[in-house]
From TrEMBL:
<dbReference type="InterPro" id="IPR012132">
    <property type="entry name" value="GMC_OxRdtase"/>
</dbReference>
<keyword id="KW-0285">Flavoprotein</keyword>
<dbReference type="InterPro" id="IPR000172">
    <property type="entry name" value="GMC_OxRdtase_N"/>
</dbReference>
<feature type="active site" description="Proton acceptor">
    <location>
        <position position="624"/>
    </location>
</feature>
<feature type="signal peptide">
    <location>
        <begin position="1"/>
        <end position="20"/>
    </location>
</feature>
<protein>
    <recommendedName>
        <fullName>Glucose-methanol-choline oxidoreductase N-terminal domain-containing protein</fullName>
    </recommendedName>
</protein>
<dbReference type="GO" id="GO:0050660">
    <property type="term" value="F:flavin adenine dinucleotide binding"/>
</dbReference>
<feature type="domain" description="Glucose-methanol-choline oxidoreductase N-terminal">
    <location>
        <begin position="118"/>
        <end position="141"/>
    </location>
</feature>
<dbReference type="InterPro" id="IPR007867">
    <property type="entry name" value="GMC_OxRtase_C"/>
</dbReference>
<dbReference type="InterPro" id="IPR036188">
    <property type="entry name" value="FAD/NAD-bd_sf"/>
</dbReference>
<feature type="active site" description="Proton donor">
    <location>
        <position position="581"/>
    </location>
</feature>
<feature type="binding site">
    <location>
        <begin position="48"/>
        <end position="49"/>
    </location>
    <ligand>
        <name>FAD</name>
    </ligand>
</feature>
<dbReference type="Pfam" id="PF05199">
    <property type="entry name" value="GMC_oxred_C"/>
</dbReference>
<keyword id="KW-0274">FAD</keyword>
<dbReference type="Pfam" id="PF00732">
    <property type="entry name" value="GMC_oxred_N"/>
</dbReference>
<comment type="similarity">
    <text>Belongs to the GMC oxidoreductase family.</text>
</comment>
<dbReference type="GO" id="GO:0044550">
    <property type="term" value="P:secondary metabolite biosynthetic process"/>
</dbReference>
Amino acid sequence: MRFSKLQLIGSLALARWTFAAPHAHASVKREASKLGESYDFIVAGGGTSGLTVADRLTEAFPDKTVLVVEYGDIEYAAGIFDPPTTLWNGSLGLGSTFLFRSLPIPDLNNRSAVTVGGKLVGGSSAVNGMFFDRGSRFDYDAWAQAQAGERDFDESPEKWNWDGLFPFFKKSVTFTEPDADVAAAYGYTWDKSAYGGTTPIYASMPPFEWGDNGVAREAWKEMGVKVLTECAGGDKNGICWAPTSEHPVTARRSHAGIGHYSAVVGSRPNYEMLVKHQVTRVVYPGGDLKSGPPMVEVRAVNGSVLFNLTAKAEVILSAGVFNTPAILQRSGIGHQSIISRLGIPLVLDSPGVGLNLQDHSGPSLSWNYTKPTHFTPSPDDMLNSTFAAAALSAFDATPARGPFTLAMGNSGLFLSLPALSPTANQTTARIAALGITGPAQMYLHNLYMSAPALLTGYRHQLGALAALLSNPAAPSLEAVFATGTSVPLINLHPLSRGVVRVDPADPLGLPIVDYRTASNPLDMEVYLSHFRYLRGMVGTQALARHGAREATPPASGEGKGGEDEALVAWMRGSLTPSYMHACCTAAMLPRRFGGVVGPDLKVFGAAGLRVVDASVFPMLVGAHLSATAYAVAEKAADIIIRKWAE
């Protein structure tokens, strides 16, 4: 279905789905001269979180004005596998993106992590893989454990655990049950009580699977893994179906630029958008941090002239995991060492800004089939012109059907460390010991050494992680599969921590990202446990009947020690350093633990300034991040609305 055709569809549901052209709304501004004198709320970043908050504020307060400042523009955001491509997973279908390449990672043979962020209205929800899952309840309860011990958090009415977030998970998305024939064909299961929202952010089960999708699921079942009816309701230790962030009729990508902007802005004269502009920093006149909200300094992306915007109520930073800490650091808010390298005064000592960077990573398991095997349908069929034409016709139908509706897949294995490793207790004991008396500082960036709160907070996180990974119901491993002969082994709860900092040589450019993947050797121990377990797939009847033979790693050494050494060497040269699920660089933790924002998401010590995006996550969750980003933003909007409704 080409975009021009999409605009011709007449039903109300599909009409709401049509995305705005760049000049479709009077709310879209491209020049400073078109702006008002001031706004009640200014949101830096028109992505997943920023647009969610802007939508809710303009709805709740018709008499208050909201301006979103977005670096990118309004664009059509294709799905992860949309026409005209016929090579599944060969064309990502991305819109405009920021490309972040990390510094070389010493523990991965100096390879770099590469990740992207959305550079368009809708942010990363407009360019991601569309796998729309949530973490387990234990992931979010671990947030609360990492935050415990400080009065501001312990006594706050804002609880950032599963019970405190679940209502906002439900509010944030509209789930549509698949048709009965689709559910029967693929064995889809779900529990609608895990959902309940009416917002135009859609989650749907794709009406298509590749012919070999069931091979992995059957293998996992042979290995004794439980099949779960639903994985979005807090329980996630088993084999899951995950919905895709797509419209249930058109199968087009559902993202914040549509659901929280295009679908609502036409009836909101108080909702404005400034595109192709960068928020460079926030400025407190006279340096008085109690006199907030601050001024917002902005420049056109293709210009050099700086100008200030005035917020009367609040400034909300939602520029993303890499760009939000960069705004704070350019504002003189951050780690003293980072700020001094920029040659600017330290306005607020907040050493956690840009630190605590986390992301999913891990090796992959691959195999070959030694018997003649052709699963139908398969991605190879897309190379047949007749099949490809039929796929396009099916995608053009109402409702859409066929291969183009699948995105990157929606089936996965999520399993706890105790369920997959006989040595889990020893591993988690070492994590706990590292947090109490061990040399944790050895594995951290030297910036931690000059800020004791950061090291204290990291040790506190290790305690929470040891408890989480000891839980037989809390997943440590993710393995997703749609088709093919490999699966990723994703470490859901890494111990390693990275750093994001403004580049002194290019302060307004992309920040320097230091991933430091696998810098904590216990992460490698977890990778090994995951790999040893999942290679058992190859020996199951589900794969053996096709003559499956493991293709990775290369020949191992003699004896257990030799085998482990060979596996580690192979992983250092081959594992994926980033699955593009970065978080946690302006963490919602107590200040004495190196936290940047409190439970109300206000920046400690800076009046009128909040952060609302994935940078506030205290720790990485066992899920792809978009659903959690929406839920956190919904809860943040609720907090802000209650504040200003008083």
